[in-house]
Amino acid sequence: MLCRSLSMRAPSPVAAHANEVIVSGGGVVGAAMMASLQQLRSHLHSSSAGQGGGSAASLLASQLTHLMLVNSGKRPVYDAANMMDRLRTVSITPVSSKIIDNLGAWDRLTTKHPYYRIAVRHEQANSPYLGAGSRSSSSFMTSVLGNSTSSEPLLEFTDLRKPVGFICFNAELNSCMMDVVEAQQCALADTDADAAHDTVCFGARLEGVRIPSRGTLGGPWGSAKLVVGETTTDVTFGLLLGCEGRDSPLRDVLSTPALQHDYAQAAFVCTVRLEKSDDGNVCAFQNFFRDGKIVAMLPTSEDTANIVFSTTPQHAKELLASTQEDLVAELNRRLCAFASNDIPKILEVPQTSTPDGKVRRAQGSFPLKLNVATTPYAPRAILLGDAAHSIHPFAGQGLNLGIYDLCALTSVLEQAIRSGQDIGSSVAVGQVFAGHMLSHTAPVIAGMEVIKKLTYWTPGLASVGMKALNSIPVASTLAKDAILQVSSGALFAAQHRRSYLLQ
Fold first, then answer.
1. Inter-residue contact 499 to 411 (CB < 8 Å)
2. pLDDT tens, position by position, 195-224
3. What is the 3-state secondary structure (H, E, C) of 297-360?
4. Adjacent-strand bridge partners of 266
5. How far, in Å, CA of 187 to CA of 43, rounded?
6. One GO MF term, please (predicted)?
7. CATH code for 2-78+173-259+371-455?
8. Nearest alpha-carbon partner for 201 in 6, 46, 423, 450
9. Three-state DSSP class for 203?
10. Model-level pTM greater than 0.70?
């Protein structure tokens, strides 16, 4: 357990206990939010000082003098030799990569494998194991899709000029973002020790969180007890940011209404080694199945990839318990067999032997649920990332939405501080931020739900739609551009083009 002030001197009681902002959760979104707050403080100081207002600059920056990050786990440290640190991957859009770069973490990453193509297939049209009689009894469907299997993608997005996205290891991104938090504070301490009061607590938690009731305007600061090991300290805050993930305890404190749905699925994830492909493994593949299963292969290097298999909980358990040979055969049957000339063949799932003789494989599983807070704020508190909206992973947008959240909130906080508003106000900050969150999460979630339902309930119609979207001139270009505007983050960037995190 570790709780340390990153100040170069011992903080005063006020600095130790009172914080303008507390970030609860030290995952990627929490660490990035902390780094963004530190950068906002510097930005407020430098932009105002540049206009000849030294005292005004100090006053604005003082609104974020005391920052705290609380994380229940250990300090994230990435170990490239640990195969489990390479198990969980995240797909990063070009816009998210720009935000991460402006925060100072992008250049620190050793793995940010670009992909220039996305290829989507469906069992209805592409599976070599589906009999002709099972494809479609409709003459229209047959005329469009044919009555035999095809290895060609139903839908394809390609941009040879620039990456469609990047695949990174979550553990490395988390570790690098925490490095940024600590580096920014050390730099601040070297230049202005009086302002260096940021605290990062690992192995810690907040208990007894108290915030003003909903509808309260200009109420008192919130309060909580910071528990680190056997030590309990009273803390107060002007704004508490819940970045703890899908099981956020702050959600219960807010008692926020939510849109919830249990997909009755689990995601089986594993790392695989592939046959090398001629293109350098720069395509992300996704195959849909008539029973609702979805499998994705996300490239992490020239000959490795991450598998995300959305399946039934029972099937996920079977995959976890299967032998190396059976697992590789099952994954190849779901992927490479659909297009052996396009989708790389899986050679193995890396594994190692433990000292007691047991085999440990780079794999895991977690349940899939939709859980979206419809009111992700209250006086003195805001939810971000998975704490506000946990979604199905097949769209690859989960972390990106969290990155967009922190970018939007940073802009809202900057505007509130410059206009003299209370950063904990549910009107000046909470409601405004919720509007921004809705604008970048709703299109993704709605589109994702429509696609998932269509590919399951009407696989033939979904296949026809994807093929038409891929092949009809003009309409195909316009439709794909519209989809990429949302999926790449370009629409978000256009809405927030004044944000310094996007410059």
1. yes
2. 558 999 999 999 999 999 887 777 899 999
3. EEECCCCEEEEEEEECHHHHHHHHHCCHHHHHHHHHHHCHHHCCCCCCCEEECCEEECCCCCEE
4. 311, 367
5. 14
6. FAD binding
7. 3.50.50.60
8. 6
9. coil
10. yes
